[in-house]
Structures are given as structure tokens and as C-alpha cells.
Amino acid sequence: MVIKESLRAHAYLSLYNVGTDLVIANRIIPDAVQDPFFQRMKEKQQQYKQEIYEDFRPLPVKEVPLFAEEMCGLDALHRLKETLYEAEDPTQVYYKETTLRVVQDSQDYSLELYLPGIPKDKIELSKSADELNIRIGNHRRNLVLPQALAALQPAGAKMEDDYLKIRFSTAL
Questions:
Q1: What is the C-alpha to C-alpha distance for residues 76 and 70, in angstroms, rounded to an integer?
Q2: Which residues neighbour 2 within 8 Å (Cβ) at sequence distance 6 or greater?
Q3: pLDDT digit string (tens) for 48-105?
Q4: d(C-alpha 131, C-alpha 147), whole Å
Q5: What would the pLDDT profile of 97-138 be if each residue is shown by its tens digit?
Q6: Cβ atoms of residues 37 and 73 within 8 Å
Q7: What is the three-class DSSP state of 123?
């Protein structure tokens, strides 16, 4: 459930042109834990980890182990920082995804929105004057179209490689 909610949040952030550059998988039971009581949980966790790496590809994933104590206080935050970033700069951008782009192909244009994991049948589109209205469930964005697209009408849309590609045609 948490993975699916994270995927939805990733897509909704992209809808509003907010990129995601890193996924953190936390509370991973360390390999050093050999108690048979945890064996089934570790097996399920391996499946979930694989799902995370596949579902969020190409985003990098960092893992944080399940610590023996609750992560409270500055010392715990420092330990978490060392676990996650070691000598890295935590403010760096780990991955850059273009969440919105306009592509020209001869006389036609495409507006491409990065919406990972969202099926096309869950997306509602409408155009009003120079705005494209995009609705996914309870989330809606009114996108002011670039001048090159504002005077054109949408001529079709498809999902391809996690991008919603909306074609605008100059030919009527």
C-alpha cells in the first residue's frame, strides 16, 4: 500500500512540474538479522524491494535499515544522515527528469507530461481558450499553454514511456 501511495505521489508531483530525484526505502531488515522469526518478513521485503526498484526506475533508490532503536533526537538524525549520504552532498540532484516538454514534429506539436504509473483511462483532458485542463482523480491542473499551442486544438493523446503525449495539429 505504501509503495502504491508513493507512486501516486510521484505522479501527482510530476503533474505540478515537481521532479523527484531519489527514492528512500526505509526500515529494511538487515542481512545480519538471522532470527527465524524474521525470515518470512525478510522474504516479503525482498519482493517489495524489487517492486520499488522496478516501479521507480530510473530513479535511484537508497535503503535505510531498520534500526534497533527508534530514530529520535539529533544523534539519531546524524546517524540517519551518515547511513544515507556518507560523504555525499545531500543537496545534490540525484536524477533529473523533465516533467513537461513541448516537441515539434514537422507541422505538429506534442505536449508531453511525465505521469509515471498513471493509466490513460484515469486522465481527463479538456481545453478552454489557452488552458489545458488535466484531471486525475481529485487532482486537477490548469496548464496555461505555450503560445505555439494555445491557438491549436488537441488531435489525440496516448501514454508512452510514462509520458502523456498530447498531439496538437496545425492541419484541420
A1: 8
A2: none
A3: 999 999 999 899 999 999 998 888 999 999 999 999 999 999 999 999 988 999 998 8
A4: 11
A5: 889 999 988 778 999 999 998 988 999 999 988 999 999 988
A6: no
A7: strand
* Residue 15 DSSP label: H
User: Model pTM?
Assistant: 0.78
If one counts every other C-beta atom within 10 angstroms of the C-beta of residue 73, the result is 9
Whose cell is 520499488? That residue is 52
23 to each of 10, 30, 54, 56, 84, how far by Cα in Å? Answer: 10, 18, 12, 8, 11
Task: Please give the full DSSP string across 47-101, using - where no structure is assigned.
Answer: HHHHHHHHHTTTS-EEEEE--SS---HHHHHHHHHHHHHTTS-TTS-S-----EE
Using DSSP's 3-state secondary structure scheme, residue 142 falls into strand
Cα–Cα distance measured from residue 7 to residue 63, given in angstroms and rounded to the nearest whole number: 17
